[in-house]
Amino acid sequence: MKLLIKSVKVIQSSSEFHQQKVDILVKDGVISSIKSKIDEVADETLEIENLHLSEGWFDSSVSFGEPGYEERETLENGLLTAAKSGFTQIGLNSNINPIADHASALNFLQKENEKQAVRVYPIAALTKHSEGKDLAEVYDMHTAGAVSFYDYKKPVSNPNLLKIALQYVQNFDRLVQSFPLDESIAHKGYVHENKQSTILGLKGIPSFAEELQISRDLHILEYTGGKLHIPTISTKKAVELIREAKKKGLDVSCSVAIHQLVFNNDKLDTFNSHFKVMPPLRSKEDQEALVKGVNDGTIDLVTTDHMPMDIEHKKVEFENALFGTIGLESAFGALNALLGLEKAIDLLTRGKKRFHIPSSLIKEGEVANFSFFNPKGNYIFAPQHILSSSKNAMFLDHSLTGKALGIYAQKNLVIHESDS
Hints:
Elements: E1 2-10, E2 21-27, E3 30-35, E4 44-46, E5 52-55, E6 57-62, H1 75-84, E7 87-92, H2 103-113, E8 119-124, H3 138-143, E9 148-149, H4 159-168, E10 175-177, H5 183-186, E11 191-192, H6 195-200, E12 204-205, H7 207-224, E13 228-230, H8 236-247, E14 252-257, H9 258-262, H10 284-295, E15 301-303, H11 331-339, H12 341-349, E16 370-380, E17 399-409, E18 412-415
Parallel strand pairs: 1-4, 1-5, 6-7, 7-8, 8-9, 9-10, 10-13, 11-12, 13-14, 14-15
Antiparallel strand pairs: 1-2, 2-3, 5-16, 16-17, 17-18
Helix pairs in contact: 4-7, 7-8, 11-12
């Protein structure tokens, strides 16, 4: 099959075509030609006003529901949502039912990879049943395709278990993730602990519940070696701890959820459960420190931390609602509005190496792996922009800039029809 992409602007700093408007011809999934104008007849032609493309985007923390929670999201619709939101590769979390803590659970995902445009990279459970007691069959899951090991949103409370995990995975060069939360301090809290949480009568989680856990984990990493990833940090001190650890030469990386860069705990005044996430939205000072950490490279990558949640678990009293927000659909528009186009694209692509995800250069002879987008145009994110089965979107009624238009990956073209 031949695909001709007309008059597209390339955004990839490592490509010789960066910031150039070109025609691109793709034959059987490989970039055949890149020129100022190509007149060759193709099976399909893509021509959209102000069309831009970059290397395909990667999200390191995505949750769906299948199997076990299909009422929240199916794998088929979840992957279609990711594709139309501009993502060609995702790290899929283990929080399904049963928990993805053995190789056979990952084989199901690999079968889906054979027929979908979006490539799924399993983030397998670190411990059996994600209970934090015994190490799961991590080597078997590595051979079945797992790129990292993580008990989603559950801290590794036993420090010896984290020590063993970091030592063991060095044998096959994989990444251990440790959620930054000391549960004994967080207890039953569910928002940021400060004066506001007291006034609102909401149970708080102090910032140092995150920071103590990170400090402990960094000390363990310094002893063991290995590779540690700390997902979705949320506090100013967390950024400082990781910055200092990197200066010491520790092999640590971290991510931040996009919504933590855009919102802070001022939103809690509405008691809108869409803003109930874990870690909780923190103070404005924390928010500003996170943005600074992204800009100076201390924070390695951003994630949507996409977590569909059915209405029965969200449209309830705030304290009873489950944590989570969807974020795939709003990711590009939010980052582009906050940080600008080139920084947004950098953040959406640069985490691949850390997770052993193949990158792709926009160059003749290379495999075609593209994300399409239009970076222009401000709009209010509304219900019609939601593609997920669940509608728990924190970005509803928020102003975004630019839209993802789809992808070309694994020889499949998926284009998001324009909406109002």
